[in-house]
Every structure is written in structure tokens, then in C-alpha cells.
Specification:
197 residues, mainly alpha, Arc Repressor Mutant, subunit A, Tetracycline Repressor, domain 2, 2 domains, 9 helices, 66% helix
């Protein structure tokens, strides 16, 4: 007699609602923009999102984790490579989006979080893996396309060129001595990878 396959066990608890998650992230982002990191508390998020505190804890372990998730959600996935732009225009657009994310109030708050965190905390890892690495990889692909098409002078060391592009952005972000603007990104790109011809 053939064995009947068992139905999978039902998941415990109520399923997570993407609309609830979106409301929590929107609330955290608004709090970050208006009051910085100190304004992002579980109580404030719950009140603004119209959810209970336990609901927030079903998604994140603390308010700092919610703030980081809000920043990553707002920064979005790199999409410059999927546009109809030339590789060089797409490269500039990609780095402009990074500058925009850093220049926004949420970006400055996240910089403060990362600067205060130890390098191996979940917060620092999330910023490093979900934002920095993601954007660096997208920039590498676009830079490789620029080189293949002969649009820029090929750097002697591609990885070093990427460090030279991102390093000044992070320096300005963490030190706060000068603004991060699209014009700054353009000057940086012209200095590190000048156009050919």
C-alpha cells in the first residue's frame, strides 16, 4: 500500500503582511528624516505606523535595525545599468544615486550609526553587504563596460580605481567636512577615470 505524502506543517503565527512592513519602514524613514537616529524608537515607529510594538519586533530586533532597513529600502537596488543610457552616463547616474542617498538626512543618520557601531555588528554588516557591496558591484560592471567601449582611460588597477571612487564618498560621509553632491561625484570620476580622447 503506497504511503500517503504528509501535508507540510502549517507555519506558526500569523503570516507577515508586506503592507505592515512597508508602513513600519515608511514611519522609520520619516522619523529619521525629521529627527535623526534618536527620534527612531520602537514606540515612535509603532505610533506613526499604527501598529503595535510586538508587531515591529516580529520583523526587527530593535529600533536601530528598523532604521537601517528603512535606509536600505529607500536607497533601492542599483538600476542604472538597466537603463538606455550609455555606459558612462549610466556610471555617473549610479554614483549620483549613491551621493543622493548619502546626502539625505537618512544617509547622514545611517553614517552616524555605522561610525558608532563595531565593525562586526549586524548593523555594520548590513550596511557593508546590502549597500556598499551592492553599489560597488554595480559600479564595477558599468566601469568595465566603459573600458570595453573605449569611453574612459583604462585604470591600471580596477579594484584600486573603485576604492578611489568610493573612498572620498565615505570620507565625506563620516567626517562631514564637505557636502556630498552630484557635482562632487562628477569631479571625482573625472579625476579617477578620465574620459578617453
Amino acid at each position: 500500500m503506497a504511503r500517503q505524502s504528509q501535508a507540510p506543517a502549517p507555519a506558526r503565527g500569523r503570516p507577515r503582511d508586506p503592507r505592515t512592513r512597508a508602513a513600519i519602514l515608511a514611519a522609520a524613514r520619516a522619523l529619521l528624516e525629521r529627527g535623526g537616529l534618536t527620534a527612531v524608537t520602537i514606540e515612535a515607529i509603532a505610533l506613526k505606523a499604527g501598529v503595535s510594538r510586538p508587531t515591529i519586533y516580529r520583523y526587527w530586533s530593535n529600533a536601530t535595525a528598523v532604521a537601517m532597513a528603512a535606509f536600505l529600502d529607500a536607497s533601492g537596488a542599483p538600476d542604472a545599468a538597466r537603463t538606455g543610457r550609455t555606459p558612462l552616463a549610466a556610471l555617473r547616474a549610479q554614483l549620483h544615486s549613491v551621493a543622493d542617498a548619502f546626502a539625505a538626512p537618512t544617509g547622514r543618520s545611517v553614517a552616524a550609526m555605522v561610525a558608532a557601531a563595531q565593525s562586526e555588528t549586524e548593523l555594520a554588516k548590513a550596511f557593508r553587504n546590502e549597500f556598499i557591496a551592492r553599489n560597488r558591484d554595480a559600479t564595477r560592471l558599468l566601469l568595465e563596460r566603459c573600458i570595453e567601449d573605449g569611453l574612459v582611460v583604462p585604470p591600471a588597477d580596477l579594484e584600486l580605481a573603485l576604492d578611489l571612487i568610493f573612498g572620498p564618498l565615505f570620507y565625506r560621509l563620516l567626517m562631514g567636512h564637505a557636502p556630498i553632491t552630484r557635482a562632487f561625484v562628477d569631479r571625482l570620476l573625472d579625476a579617477v577615470i578620465p574620459a578617453s580622447g
